[in-house]
UniProtKB/TrEMBL annotation:
Protein name: Glycosyltransferase family 2 protein
Keywords: Transferase
MF-aspect GO terms: transferase activity
Leader sequence segment: none
InterPro entries: Glyco_trans_2-like (IPR001173), Glycosyltransf_2 (IPR050834), Nucleotide-diphossugar_trans (IPR029044)
UniProt xrefs under PANTHER family: GLYCOSYLTRANSFERASE (PTHR43685), GLYCOSYLTRANSFERASE 2-LIKE DOMAIN-CONTAINING PROTEIN (PTHR43685:SF2)
Domain Glycosyltransferase 2-like: 5-174
């Protein structure tokens, strides 16, 4: 019996997907207790062929591929929720690796806490070309979103939510919350995210507790292409755009503006405590987030 489903949305990253699947097939759960659903979101590369070859080389692992034409990761994640056969569903992204006990950690957590609906795990940033010298922990957040809150299961700290690439849900508890908002989330390489943050906000407003499960470990692979100034400016700007969209959805735009002004004060103080190179990147991040936040997007 399938007890937990793993969903991986993917778009034109066949090589990264295969690398992620290499870690998935090493799960320490019996093979008949889990499945992996890859949702190809309008991929035009050789994703289908490479997945088929990988699945053929790993028979009995419960790997299957479905196609989703709705553009964007929100459509892909919602399709994964519909396709999953298990009562528990975990998500990762296609540029990640997971530990052998990833699915077991989530399965054991939900089985010991029958009232829990949502959880997230540990995220470790991995830099194949090395971690840049200009990177502070503040700048690293939008790039890699590392997450480590200790060795015990606990509620997420206030103000923090799981990363979209390491989260799990009890499907029965999600009925009243809907799915991921397709007006949010990355589409065809655009960096406007926030669909998981919006989903978590709805869960919190509904009274749910978001749990941290340290045994579910994910390594987020950050290539050099995501460490350029141009990419970082575009990413930071779209973080601001996403914050504005979510604030409009939840009718708290004035509060979000005030909070951003307060963040500027904190940023300036922090810049006085770090080397000039790191402070320049932090100021660049804040400036681009503010630009995205305070710019009204035309419909």
């Amino acid at each position: 019996m399938i007890r937990i489903s793993l969903v991986i949305p993917t778009h034109n990253r066949a090589a990264q997907l295969v690398a992620a699947l290499e870690s998935v097939v090493r799960q320490d759960l019996p093979r008949d207790e889990w499945e992996c659903v890859v949702v190809s979101n309008n991929s035009t590369d050789d994703t289908e062929a490479r997945f088929a070859a990988f699945a053929a080389a790993h028979p009995g692992c419960g790997l299957r591929l479905v196609a989703e034409e709705g553009p964007g990761v929100s459509y892909a994640r919602n399709r994964g929720l519909r396709e999953a056969q298990a009562p528990l569903v975990a998500f990762i992204d296609d540029d990640e690796r997971v530990n052998e006990g990833f699915l077991r950690a989530y399965l054991e957590f939900f089985e010991t806490r029958p009232g829990a609906v949502v959880a997230g795990g540990r995220i470790v940033a991995e830099y194949p070309a090395g971690r840049p010298a200009w990177m502070s922990k503040y700048v690293e957040m939008p790039i890699a979103n590392p997450m480590d809150f200790g060795e015990r299961v606990r509620p997420f700290p206030a103000g923090r939510v799981p990363g979209g690439g390491n989260m799990a849900f009890r499907r029965a508890g999600l009925a009243s919350y809907g799915g991921f908002d397709p007006t949010l989330g990355r589409v065809n390489g655009e960096l406007i995210g926030g669909e998981e943050n919006d989903f978590f906000e709805r869960l919190l407003l509904g009274g749910e507790t978001i749990w941290y499960v340290p045994g579910a470990v994910m390594w987020h692979i950050i290539p050099p292409a995501k460490l350029t100034g141009a990419y970082f400016r575009r990413l930071s700007y779209n973080v601001g755009v996403s914050q504005r969209l979510r604030a409009e959805i939840h009718r708290r735009l004035p509060k979000t503006f005030v909070l951003e002004i307060a963040k500027w004060a904190a940023t300036l103080v922090l810049c006085c405590t770090m080397p000039p190179r790191k402070s320049r990147w932090l100021l660049r991040m804040r400036l681009e987030i503010s630009r995205g936040l305070f710019t009204k997007i035309k419909n």
